[in-house]
Amino acid sequence: MPRLREKSIGSKIASCGLVSSNVKGCFSICDIPFLGCDFATVYPAVSSLIPEEKVFFAEFGINMAVMCEIICSAICHQINWGFLRESVYNYTKENPDWLQPCNLSVIGSKRVAILLGAYHKKENIKAEERAEILRAVGKWAEQYKEIKDVFLEGSKALKHQKQVYLSLQKCIAFSSDPEGKKINLLLQKLNSISDLCGIGRYAKPAIDYHLLRLYLRRGLLRARTKYADMYVRSPGVERKENTVAALRELCAKILRKISLCTDQSILTINQIEWQVARSVCQRECPDCELKGAGAHWLKPEFRKCPFHHTCIAYNYPTEDLMTVKEPVYKGTSY
User: Is pLDDT of 331 > 90?
Assistant: First the structure.
């Protein structure tokens, strides 16, 4: 998929197309619950251990806090979430006016380079690409008197789910994602703002690369054909938006099945999967025995990955799923 520096965000929408039905048909998803499935006990146990977000924006007031969350969700691709939030928080504390839509709508790459300059993977800063996304956010936000109006009626009541989605989809930074990962991530994070408490129930599954990797390794998402197997075992090939979107759609179905099976909300299941994938089922070196510092949040209750009992990669090493990684995709909605 062409990068934003090669194509504008607007033309990117036209190029991403629909979700690939061909790729979707090459994969299958696991029936949940299945024989030996322990999800009904494991997920509630993990939910009580989920680490809290380290950075909150509430001290800035509702409008600035909402804008900070919008910015983080809009430019979160291929950058560490904790680093991004801390960077936005620190920059906002020193430069509160940068959040004004009129300033965002003309933001340049130099300012984004300053914002993210401390990131250890310099090739992932992509200052011009993220600046273009932020300019789109600023231009969209200019149509509202206050950015909270996207989500709240004048009486502070939450707007209807359809109204919220329609408003967010008018922003190219969000509408360019066919699976709505960034919108759903945003709604999940806005739920922590007291005036917006409850908006998390509007969120659908937010499927990023961490969850794709997790479900492939655990065998909840399975390759049915040789092409599908090659698709997930060819780390040197960059995949297109619409084919990756097909896998994300299947993973969203899996997440919904788990939510129904465990009686846990989509928001909770999403957080569990994301935390386990990034701290335990890591891309380069899975920490199934919870020996790394990142997995300490699980130690009060677990000595191994909570899902090791039903994980295909862990229990059937001959299938060689432990080394499977998510498809390579360098677009802006992963």
Answer: no
